[in-house]
Amino acid sequence: MKIEMSGYAYVRADARNVKDLRTLLRFLDDNKVTDTAELDWSSGYLYVSVIEDATADFIECGDHIPPDHKFDVILNTHDHEKDNTPAMFDWPAIDRYADEARPE
Prior knowledge:
Layout: E1 6-13, H1 18-30, E2 39-42, E3 45-60, E4 71-76, H2 98-101
Antiparallel strand pairs: 1-3, 2-3, 3-4
């Protein structure tokens, strides 16, 4: 049996005036949403289709440790080639909590 998971994501905005539209456009630009993203003006909101029919995977939530497993779903919006090229950035080497743990 083949099991697949996919999903979609929309940005929803209550755009009522030009300022709202400018704010939405800044948000979309900052997040690199493509110019070809489809719009849906319905039910009092403006919806922007960010991704459609993306493959999805369960991932462990970083705020929970075993045995308290919690899972989130991530939408895969692009592929990575499977090779031995090192990552461009060494995320595991960053201690996000180091500043909080330091004595003053």
